[in-house]
């Protein structure tokens, strides 16, 4: 870490410099974070406690809930702290650690959404072989592969970033540390970093998006081949929750990274969407649109009430 001896911290400019606005934002983000924690923990508890949900689809959903807890907890606590603080600083080492975990959890979620799309394809195209194809060993391997690939990729990027010299202004026009926001602060040659980050983005986001698109192309083709209207409707209903999550995650992510950098507050709306808001919405999406999850929640609530009577 000797390259960072010129200064010990960065300044996260955040969303607003107005004290009254910061208080309102603090209350808003605190509510969002608490709802995120509660919603995803309830989802994990429901999936864990109800034997009716011991199938691959809900195994992956449980992993998504755990991942949303991690992804949100990487950024939101520091955002809350800075909204109440005048200095709004973050140690260089802490900033690099946050950038690593933001990249790792985001990459894992992209891979996991691709895995979930493949799971839906197998369930719809080969329902009789679903349990055999999506075996426990395969499901666990796909999850570990998603985490492993993302963490190795994040480690490669962060090790290259650690070797940069940061000798420009210390201000980061963002509410959190991300790899792309650190490069402009460096007086070293960042061409290699940009190239590696671009390859990683293509692999994790565009690559997994193509896999999801291919899976849904096959899903739509299979659904259209079903003769009955009720059968088509039932088959498509099993995908609506996942499809909604994909649109929220990739839509905000693509807009965040493809729009030109202007330094405005409006530019932070899309990063806020996929790093703060989406982890809160995912449990609601899967609980409101999924009858099995709602039934499992009712059973868990009845067991909880009966335990006190």
UniProtKB/TrEMBL annotation:
> Which gene is the coding source of this polypeptide chain?
LOC103546818
Its main subcellular localisation, reduced to a broad class, is: membrane
The record's section on PROSITE patterns has:
G_PROTEIN_RECEP_F1_1, G_PROTEIN_RECEP_F1_2
Xref: Pfam families: 7tm_4
Membrane topology value: Multi-pass membrane protein
- Which keywords does UniProt give here? Cell membrane, G-protein coupled receptor, Membrane, Olfaction, Receptor, Sensory transduction, Transducer, Transmembrane, Transmembrane helix
Signal sequence span per UniProt?
none
Annotated family? Belongs to the G-protein coupled receptor 1 family.
Task: Indicate where this protein resides in the cell.
Answer: Cell membrane; Membrane
> This chain belongs to which protein, by name?
Olfactory receptor
This protein's species is: Equus przewalskii
């Amino acid at each position: 870490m000797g390259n960072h001896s010129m200064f010990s911290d960065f300044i996260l400019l955040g969303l607003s410099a107005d004290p009254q606005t910061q208080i309102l934002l603090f209350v808003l983000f605190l509510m969002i974070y608490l709802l995120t924690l509660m919603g995803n923990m309830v989802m994990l508890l429901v999936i864990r406690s109800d034997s009716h949900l011991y199938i691959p689809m809900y195994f992956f959903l449980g992993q998504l809930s755990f991942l949303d807890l991690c992804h949100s907890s990487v950024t939101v606590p520091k955002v809350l702290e800075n909204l109440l603080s005048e200095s709004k600083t973050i140690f260089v080492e802490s900033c690099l650690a946050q950038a690593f975990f933001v990249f790792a959890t985001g990459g894992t979620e992209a891979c996991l959404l691709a895995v979930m799309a493949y799971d839906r394809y197998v369930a719809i195209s080969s329902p009789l072989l679903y349990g055999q194809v999506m075996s426990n060993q395969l499901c666990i391997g796909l999850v570990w592969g998603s985490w492993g690939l993302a963490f190795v990729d994040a480690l490669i990027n962060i090790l290259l970033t650690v070797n940069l010299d940061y000798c420009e202004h210390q201000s980061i026009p963002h509410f959190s540390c991300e790899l792309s926001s650190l490069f402009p602060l460096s007086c070293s040659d960042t061409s290699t970093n940009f190239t590696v980050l671009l390859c990683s983005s293509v692999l994790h986001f565009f690559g997994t998006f193509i896999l999801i698109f291919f899976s849904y192309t096959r899903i739509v083709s299979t659904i259209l081949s079903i003769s009955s209207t009720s059968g088509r409707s039932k088959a498509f209903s099993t995908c609506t929750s996942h499809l909604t999550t994909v649109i929220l995650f990739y839509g905000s992510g693509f807009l965040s990274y493809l729009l030109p950098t202007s330094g405005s507050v409006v530019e932070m709306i899309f990063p806020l969407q996929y790093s703060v808001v989406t982890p809160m919405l995912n449990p609601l999406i899967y609980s409101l649109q999924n009858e099995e999850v709602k039934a499992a929640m009712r059973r868990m609530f009845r067991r909880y009430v009966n335990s006190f009577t």
